[in-house]
Amino acid sequence: MTRAKPEDDDWNSSKIHAFTFDDDDDEFTKLKESKRAVSSILVDDDDDDDDDDDDDVEKVSWSGEPVGSISWSVKETASSIRSGGEHGFPKINTAPSLPKQGSGYSLSSLFKASTRVYAPELRKPKSECKDYFSDWSPEETVKRMRKGKVYSLERFRSLQDKLLLLDEAVSAHDGNVITAVLIYLKKSLSKEIFFQELMVREIALRHYVHYLKEMEEQKTLVELMKLPFSQDDAIHVQDHYTLLERQIIIEATDKKGEAEIFKKFPRKASILNMPIITTLYYSCFYHYGESEGTFSSPANIRSTFRISEKQYILTALGARAKLKSWFDVDSLFNTKNWLGYTKKRSPIGFHRVVDILQKNNAPVQVLKDYVSLIDDAELKLSLAQKYKCHDIVIEMYRDLKDRQQLIVYQGKVERGSHEDRKIDQLLGNMQIRWKN
Amino acid sequence: MCLRDAPGLPDFSLLKRLARDQLIYLLEQLPGKKDLFIDADLMSPLDRIANVTTLKQHEVDKLYKVELKPVVSVSDQLCFLIRPRIQTVKWIADVVKSDKAVGRFRRYKIIFTPQKFYACETVLEEQGVYGDVTSDEWEFYLLPLDDDIISLELPEFFRDNFLEGDQRWVTTAGSALRLLHFLFGPFSKVYGIGRCAKVKQVEDGEKKAQNPDIGNVFLIDRDVDFVTPLCSQVVYEGLVDDIFRIKCGSVEFGPDVTSTDKSLKVMLNSQDKVHVGETQRKKEIWWEKQRKKKRCGMDIKQMKAFVAEELKGLKQEHRLLSLHIGACESIMKKKTKQDFQELLKTEHSLLEGFEIRECITYIEEHINRQVSMIESLRLLCLLSLTENGESYGIEHLLSFANLRQIGLLVEQQPGETLTVMESKVGKLVNDKTAGKLTDAFSSLAKKSNFRALSKRLMLIPKTGEEYDLRVPRDMAYIFSGAYIPLSCKLIEQVLERDGWTGFEEVTRMLNGHEFAVTERGEQASEGRSVLMNELLSSVNTNITFPLAKGCKFIVLTTAITNSSRLLESLLDNQG
């Protein structure tokens, strides 16, 4: 039986092209055709020699794992236990396969060649070792540790020696050894001194922090972080607990959902374990205007978690905009300047404010107030056009003395509308010195 | 993927045999019947080394997965095959202690792989069980996943090293390299870039006087090129990985793919690959012909022969084929054409630095639609890296609403250093997720220079003529012609120049730590090379080799990854 010969006609004439998603919908249908073709062949064949599969498509059990694999037998064991009995381990009827040693590398040659000790741990008699310990310098010790040889750290008693040891470990770039030395220092130094030295050794510090995390020694971690060098982890941990505390309190009351607003906008999820920003948003949404004294008020959250003005305004803006409280939005930006006049000011660009408002379907009336506050002229113009704040566009073109653009824009506004008339007025105004 | 006249690959099955031999030796150190507990991460690799039969032959009775709960085993001897994690060791200590508490006597053996850490021993000591267990190291470093890919299967390398700053695995990687050097070397030239790579370069030790199978070595740290793994994969294997998760060279297809009610595990490597497109069509057509031929004009003898031999082989291929077709359908359903095209378009624009505002809008919508947090995050990272962290509209994108959706905040100020950003962010956010992510960015401790690098190295091929994916002229075919992976391009260039000379501005943009060492003054040998990625190659995608060199490439990596795994490892709260 021969395979298809290349000179066959339909072989060559078929369209073979690389699979890309740029193809049109034919791809799907082509796949379906392929599938049909393939499965139709199956119908013709006799399907009774399932047992002769090779390794490529492995025989599977009900759980989908290939029979004879580790995961399969783990599942089998687990299920046999669950089914109450401890039957013998399921038998697998395959011929035993001994590993072939045709490699030319015998075990022993490999063991000898390597500097590592392969054999299981042996306990050397103490007497044999004692004589050598005192001779081992930090360099020697670290070298021995890296190779898994016997070592002793106890001889490093003076602080100076300990630090030399630590620095040596760090320069060896071996995390395993660094951590081992740190464990020793932790045991043999007071916390204050140990931490002090860590503060000035960044790599060692990172290893220690990682070790503490793995050992789940949160308390020590927090203590370490209270030190006067900023580590965001510390802040995170502290804040995390405080936040959680607050959330529990808020959750307890809000869960009942008695206030009007909860009925109108039912909560989608509990506030527990939400990030700060989410919590702030929640508070701005459901508890806006509450006094700073209450845990649930935005003001309280803001001060407790030292939220920046920018972030606060962003969040509050989003929440109030969602509720369409344009008045609240407005007061977010009101500040009194030194003369006592109210002025609008925003730590985030007003273009952003506009964007957020627009996303919350603010009416043009509201939008235009903020568009007009945008500093950048170009941006202001483009956003005004985008959101159809006609008055602003008109005024800007007037200020730019750009008659052409004004005419063009007139085409965009509704005939006979207020804007239309306004443009007419301007165009007719003789006093304006148009530039074009 | 590689060239005419390239020499054959060395036989890496040797590595498997060595590993198996050593494991057996260790198991025999605890004679008699024993139950074996295996770390979940080790189950797949172990499967490729020694199957259940082998284990049973060495008196392993029952197999259990390591789960942090009380054991139900009744055996008198317990053996634990684990990665050196403190959490696992603590659990073992608990097992021993609870046995002691009820007066039960057993023998316990811990096999750490690839090595034991001192911190683990300390835990045993502190828990008072040090004297009750024996512990060994199974130095299983290298798992061949394919003819030319070897993995250390240490996905934790990335997080531990780059995020936590813990160098525990550096020596491990060094030992792996040394083993390769010993078995297949000696290496005549070593090039590299990256902090980790530099450390490793110092490690190379013993030499063996023999004809080397592997001549040149190139070590490269993952953080030299973060952009590549963040890009969407469009190669078939990449897509399969993205959707189904390839684990240790094999993938599990669920019932929706197999069209039965069973799942199926399939090995994916050069021997079994069934490529979508050409190969498939060819096979399909060939099938048709076979079928037709079968129907007419075969005599009994021929039929018998056909059934016995051809059909068996065909059946297998047929099964594989239908599986892959099923997988394709699944992929296509999940990545609906419209969405995927837009996604790719956005990515390509980001890589090119083109139409950034549109990209930002797209990303924002993506976040709002809450399609997938990881995807959104991936795009944000890509944006941030390609735009060198500038706030070109990023502020706009990172509005509270979006962040609320994702649940994290990464704010960037133009021109500010990352440490300042960190402290600001630290005050704002307190979700562990966000904290970790900013940690990740800050631990890079450098600004990305992607845009400049891209220009200098010409990573974006000129669009002019149609890019023919079937006859690719450069490595960009991996990303459908849009982008040549940075790390691959680097390697190509350095190998061509035989060093870093003339490349100073590039190395500066990559933050230095480059080196090139020639051992024993040998000339570059028959052109075999080893690539070592400190941590990960995206499946198939990064394993793209410079087309122009007459040599074979072998990839040695700490683990195979993709964008999802990368980000998840940063976000996960590892115990």
From TrEMBL, chain A:
Domain of life according to the entry: Eukaryota
Disordered as annotated region, ranges: 39-65
InterPro entries: Spe-39, Vps16_C
A GO term from the CC aspect: early endosome
Subcellular localization, as worded in the UniProt entry: Cytoplasmic vesicle; Early endosome; Late endosome
Keyword entries, A-Z: Cytoplasmic vesicle, Endosome
Predominant location category: cytoplasm
One GO term of the biological process aspect: intracellular protein transport
Vps16 C-terminal domain segment(s): 159-233
Acidic residues biased stretches: 43-57
PANTHER family the record matches: DEFECTIVE SPERMATOGENESIS PROTEIN 39, SPERMATOGENESIS-DEFECTIVE PROTEIN 39 HOMOLOG
Protein name: Spermatogenesis-defective protein 39 homolog
Organism the protein comes from: Electrophorus electricus (Electric eel)
From TrEMBL, chain B:
Keyword Transport on entry: yes
Keywords: Protein transport, Transport
Cellular component GO terms held in the UniProt record: late endosome membrane; lysosomal membrane
Subcellular location: Late endosome membrane; Lysosome membrane
Matches recorded under Gene3D superfamilies: 1.25.40.850, 3.40.50.1910, 3.40.50.2060, Syntaxin Binding Protein 1, Chain A, domain 2 (3.90.830.10)
Pfam families for this protein: Sec1 (PF00995)
Domain of life of the native organism: Eukaryota
Record GO biological process: protein transport; vesicle-mediated transport
Membrane topology category: Peripheral membrane protein
Family that this chain belongs to: Belongs to the STXBP/unc-18/SEC1 family.
Family annotation (PANTHER family): VESICLE PROTEIN SORTING-ASSOCIATED
Protein name listed in UniProt: Vacuolar protein sorting-associated protein 33B
